[in-house]
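Q: What residues go here?
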């Protein structure tokens, strides 16, 4: 028996106190409505209406059921709404991986964008390398990841739109190469290269080094850095260069960023998620991430306290770039 349907029809009869008017309101014939009420009475083992008079009235059981039925049907409606929101990715928990180098302001913008699209969704973020995210997806420990390409999608993964960010050379501001407006990879001969460990994103790591060698730059030594601050420290402390977005160089006034001729290196990033039984919010995460990464770099809110490097490098000072 469809109890919810029976209860809804019972409530209409209880409001109209007339089977004919109730049937007309429900858009059905009166005999099937009468049969529905009789079936409900047999199921519950009580009489719901007193039919001994010309006008029907509710029995004690019928009056009690009126309040209980309304409460039950309201609860059923709430369940359906909640389940629909879960189905649409607006509720529940989304386990998402993001790369460790993702700037704080970008992370903040990403979370704000998802909260705007799905206010009831709890985003459980994990700071993981691309390789760690791919393992987490394969082992069902993550629902979606934000990874650097190339990525093998033949392992049952779907990918959202990839955002490409141009990489240039980060080098000490005092280096003679910093006097050039742009650099060829061959100009870097004799320098060490600071780069993320290969285990972080093996395919992307190999692509960078293969392109360097084909273009005449074989690093004297490869030095690995897990985070941008350590990478910038290596650049400053040694005869070392790095390939990073221009935004990374802005974190340290003692380094310079110069574009590579022809822009041969670009980091491509996108969300990926399992093709089988995907999380309903995976595509929402992907769309928001692509919009944030492709747009202007988010800026941190202004603070009243000067940044610690203001005494070393004041961007308002003419010719500061040459310091």
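A:
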């Amino acid at each position: 028996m469809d109890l919810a349907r029976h209860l809804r029809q019972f409530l209409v009869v209880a409001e109209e106190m007339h089977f004919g008017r109730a049937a007309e309101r429900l858009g059905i014939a009166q005999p099937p409505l009468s049969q529905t009420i009789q079936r409900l009475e047999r199921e519950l083992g009580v009489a719901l209406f007193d039919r001994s008079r010309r006008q029907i009235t509710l029995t004690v059981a019928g009056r009690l059921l009126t309040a209980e039925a309304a409460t039950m049907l309201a609860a059923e409606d709430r369940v359906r709404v909640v389940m629909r929101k879960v189905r649409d990715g607006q509720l529940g928990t989304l386990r998402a991986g993001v790369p460790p180098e993702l700037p704080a302001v970008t992370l903040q913008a990403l979370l704000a964008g998802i909260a705007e699209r799905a206010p009831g969704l709890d985003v459980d973020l994990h700071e993981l390398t691309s390789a760690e995210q791919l393992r987490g997806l394969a082992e069902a420990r993550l629902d979606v990841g934000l990874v650097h390409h190339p990525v093998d999608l033949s392992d049952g993964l779907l990918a959202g739109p990839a955002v490409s960010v141009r990489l240039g050379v980060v080098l000490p501001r005092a280096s003679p190469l910093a006097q050039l407006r742009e650099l060829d990879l061959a100009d870097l001969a004799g320098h060490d290269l600071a780069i993320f460990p290969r285990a972080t994103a093996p395919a992307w790591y190999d692509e960078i080094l293969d392109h360097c060698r084909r273009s005449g730059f074989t690093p004297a030594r490869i030095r690995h850095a897990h985070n941008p601050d350590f990478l910038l420290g290596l650049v400053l402390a040694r005869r070392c260069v790095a390939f990073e977005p221009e935004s990374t160089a802005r974190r340290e006034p003692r380094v310079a960023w110069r574009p590579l001729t022809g822009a041969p290196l670009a980091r491509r990033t996108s969300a990926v998620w399992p093709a089988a039984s995907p999380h309903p919010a995976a595509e929402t995460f992907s769309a928001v991430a692509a919009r944030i990464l492709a747009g202007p770099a988010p800026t941190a809110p202004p603070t009243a306290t000067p940044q610690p490097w203001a005494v070393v490098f004041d961007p308002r000072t003419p010719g500061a770039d040459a310091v």
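A: Context that may help when evaluating the design: Residues 225 and 323 are 26 Å apart (CA to CA). The first helix runs from residue 3 to 16.
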